[in-house]
Design a protein that fits this description.
It is a single chain. The chain is α/β, with parallel strands linked by helices and about 300 residues long. It has 13 helices and 8 strands. An 8-stranded parallel β-barrel has the order 1-2-3-4-5-6-7-8, surrounded by 7 helices. Helix 9 runs parallel beside helix 11 (about 235-250). The longest helix is centred in the N-terminal third of the chain and has 21 residues, at about 45-65. The chain binds 2-phosphoglycolic acid. 2-phosphoglycolic acid binds near residues 266 and 286.
C-alpha cells in the first residue's frame, strides 16, 4: 500500500522522491512518484462523503486481493491517492480512510500558525486533524479571494514548515494563453510560489536528511480547462509540464529535481490515459470526476 510503510512523500527520505521519470530532465533509471488527488471543492455532505470513502476503500482493497501480483500492486506501489475534502468533512474522512492507502489534505490554509483570522484554518490545525497535504493557490482561491502569488508562496512555506506537502497550483487563463503569456504566467506563479519554500531557500540538503515533508508537488491547471469540459491536449499539457519541470529544477536545485507534476482540468477516465502517457505528467488533480467513486477509481487505475 502506497500510503503505508513509508512509501509516500511523508514517510521516506528525499531519495524516494528524488527519482525522475526517466525521459527528460532526470535519471533514466528511476521514475517520479505518481499521485492522483481528488479535489472535492465545496461539494458533498457527511453521508455522501462516508459512502464515497467506503466504496473507494472497498474497491482499492478488492483490487489488491484479486490481482496482488499484477496491476493492483503496481498501482499500490506507484500511485499515491489523496483526497481534499472541505474543512468540516476532514475529521470524518480521515477516520473513514485510516489504515488505507488514501491520504487527506486541506483545500487551503492561512500562512500564520494561529491568530485573529476569522474563517481561516492554519497548517497546524490541518495537521492536527490528520491531514498530510495542502492545496495552495488553486485558481478558484486566486479568483474568489484575490490570492496573490506572494501570499500563495507564504502558504506553501507554512504547509512545508508544518509537515504538510503543499500542492502548488499554477495555470494561465484563456486570455493569457491567447495573448501568448502562458509561460510568463507559469514562470511567475512558480517562482513566487516556491520562493519561500525551504527547497528553494538553499536548505534542501539539510531538510532532505531531516524530513521529506519539506518537498512540494506542483499542479498545472489551465484555468480555461477547469470545470469546463475542455481538457488540455496531451501535447499542450506536456509542453507546460516540461516548462514547469525546468523551472522547478532551476528554482530548487538537483536535490528536488524529482518533484511530481500533476495535471488538472476536466480530467476524466476518457482522457486520463492520453495525458498520463506524457513523460512529464505524473498524475492528476481531479475536480468533478473525483465526486464519483467509479470515475475516480478509473482514473487511479489508468495512472499506475
Ligand atoms: P475539474 O477541476 O476536474 O472539475 O476541472 C479540477 C480542479 O479544479 O482541481
Amino acid at each position: 500500500m502506497s500510503g503505508e510503510g513509508g512509501a509516500g512523500p511523508h514517510g521516506s527520505g528525499e531519495g524516494r522522491r528524488g527519482g525522475s521519470a526517466g525521459t527528460r530532465n532526470g535519471d533514466p533509471g528511476a521514475r517520479r512518484r505518481r499521485i492522483v488527488a481528488g479535489n472535492w471543492k465545496m461539494h458533498l455532505l457527511a453521508a455522501a462523503a462516508a459512502g464515497f470513502c467506503a466504496e473507494v476503500r472497498r474497491s482499492l482493497a478488492a483490487a489488491d486481493r484479486v490481482a496482488p501480483t499484477a496491476a493492483s500492486l503496481d498501482r499500490g506501489a506507484r500511485v499515491q491517492v489523496v483526497l481534499f475534502p472541505s474543512f468540516p468533512l476532514i475529521p470524518a474522512v480521515v477516520r473513514d480512510l485510516a489504515g488505507s492507502e488514501v491520504e487527506v489534505g486541506g483545500q487551503d490554509l492561512h500562512p500564520a500558525e494561529r491568530g485573529a483570522h476569522t474563517g481561516d484554518v492554519s497548517a497546524p490545525q490541518l495537521a492536527d486533524a490528520g491531514c498530510l497535504w495542502a492545496l495552495c493557490g488553486h485558481s478558484e482561491r486566486r479568483r474568489d479571494h484575490g490570492e496573490s502569488d506572494e501570499l500563495i508562496g507564504r502558504k506553501v512555506a507554512a504547509a512545508a514548515r508544518h509537515g504538510l506537502t503543499p500542492v502548488l497550483c499554477v495555470g494561465e487563463t484563456l486570455e493569457q494563453r491567447e495573448a501568448g503569456e502562458t509561460f510568463a504566467v507559469l514562470e511567475r506563479q512558480l517562482r513566487t510560489g516556491l520562493a519561500a519554500h525551504p527547497v528553494a531557500a538553499g536548505t534542501a540538503g539539510v531538510l532532505a536528511a531531516g524530513t521529506a515533508a519539506a518537498l512540494v508537488v506542483v499542479a498545472y491547471e489551465p484555468v480555461w480547462a477547469i470545470g469546463t469540459g475542455l481538457t488540455a491536449s496531451p501535447e499542450t499539457a506536456q509542453e507546460a509540464h516540461d516548462f514547469l519541470r525546468r523551472g522547478i529544477c532551476s528554482a530548487t536545485g538537483a536535490a528536488a529535481g524529482g518533484v511530481t507534476l500533476l495535471y488538472g482540468g476536466s480530467v476524466t477516465p476518457a482522457n486520463a490515459a492520453g495525458l498520463i502517457a506524457q513523460p512529464d505528467v505524473d498524475g492528476f488533480l481531479v475536480g468533478g470526476a473525483s465526486l464519483d467513486p467509479g470515475q475516480f477509481l478509473a482514473i487511479i487505475a489508468c495512472s499506475g
